[in-house]
Each structure stands twice: as structure tokens, then as C-alpha cells.
Design a protein that fits this description.
This protein is of the alpha+beta class. It contains 4 helices and 13 strands. The protein has a 4-stranded antiparallel sheet with strand order 1-2-3-6, with no helix packed on it. 22% of the residues are buried.
Length: 191
């Protein structure tokens, strides 16, 4: 079973009473794909229960019947219910939920992996790949997005000097704290 097709799954997840907010691979890209396409999403905390598949005609041999039973037992019993799913122009390395606002931060996503995979010999591909590597290493700074949890819309965007460390963000007392790759802690306060 593939996690993102049965329950909400991602690289980073935050939850409130009824929803899961996450950043992870798009569910169409979990298996048998080379491009790594990611999305920011909101889903119900409890996945939707599926009806069991209708029984087929019984198989004629014992081995075929066992195979049928195994297939039926392994069929997904739930699926996630997504409220929204958005592409985001950054690789999310840090995420925090504060009330009805989602904060995400990470290096910019410069390349379109699907396009590069389809045409790896295209002009400027090597240059774009080097730029993406530089961005992932923190040499191009980072982005901080403020996102509405109700619709997934971007409310604000800020540029950061360097990238945050993995899962290095917290919110407390009206402030946002980011542990940065350069060893500093950044503290931001609302207006």
C-alpha cells in the first residue's frame, strides 16, 4: 500500500483538531516515477472509509482463490480527503501552524523536473540544475511564505538570507523562530 493514497502523508506534517497540513510528494508520483513533484496540502485528519471491493466469481483453483483473497485483503480500505493541494515555488524544509496560518520556509524550487526529465538535452538544463543545487545548499537564500489554512492561498512572502535547518521553525507568543543553516536563530514578530 502507498501511504499518500491511503492516508495523508508527507515530508513535513502539522495538525489541528480536524485537519492535516503537509508538504510531500504528489500522490501521482509515489511509485514508478523519476520526477520528484511535491505539493503543499490540507486534508481531513480521518481518511474516508472505502467500501470493500465486490466479490468476483470464485476462482477455479485453490492457488487462484488464495491469490484473490490476498488481493482483496490488501485492497486499500481508506483514502485521504484533500481540501486543497497547491504547487509551491520552494522546497519546504520548515513548517509550523499558528492558529489558522501556516508558515513554510525553504530554498527556491528553480527547475521543473518533469520538463527536464522529458528533454534532458535541452538548452540551459545543466545551468538550471547547477542553480538548483546551489539553492538547495543555501547559496540562493530562502523564501518564507505565510499561507491561509482555509484555501491554501499565499498571504505574504519574505526573502531570507539563508535556508532553515530541517524542521527548524517554531511559533510562540506572536513570534516566529527559525533555526538557520548558518548557525543563527531568526526571530520574526508580527506587526
Amino acid at each position: 500500500l502507498v501511504p499518500g493514497k491511503v492516508v495523508p502523508a508527507g515530508r513535513l506534517l502539522v495538525v489541528d483538531d480536524s485537519s492535516v497540513y503537509g508538504y510531500g510528494r504528489k500522490y501521482d508520483y509515489y511509485k514508478w516515477t523519476t520526477p520528484m513533484e511535491y505539493h503543499l496540502f490540507s486534508a481531513d485528519k480521518e481518511p474516508q472509509r472505502l467500501k470493500p471491493p465486490a466479490p468476483r466469481k470464485p476462482a477455479k483453483t485453490r492457488a487462484a482463490r488464495r491469490q484473490q483473497q490476498k488481493r482483496r485483503a490488501n485492497a486499500p480500505k481508506t483514502k485521504p480527503v484533500y481540501h486543497w493541494s497547491n504547487d509551491t515555488p520552494l522546497y519546504v524544509r520548515a513548517m509550523v501552524l499558528a492558529d489558522k496560518t501556516l508558515f513554510i520556509a525553504g530554498p527556491p524550487d528553480i527547475i521543473d523536473e518533469e520538463e527536464i526529465f522529458k528533454n534532458p538535452e535541452a538548452r540551459n538544463v545543466a545551468k538550471k540544475l547547477r542553480e538548483q543545487t546551489d539553492a538547495l545548499e543555501g547559496q540562493k537564500g530562502a523564501l518564507l511564505h505565510v499561507v491561509s489554512t482555509s484555501a491554501g492561498t499565499k498571504l505574504a512572502e519574505y526573502r531570507l538570507e539563508t535556508v532553515p535547518v530541517w524542521d527548524g521553525m517554531a511559533a510562540a507568543n506572536g513570534r516566529l523562530y527559525l533555526a538557520m543553516k548558518n548557525g543563527r536563530v531568526l526571530c520574526l514578530e508580527g506587526k
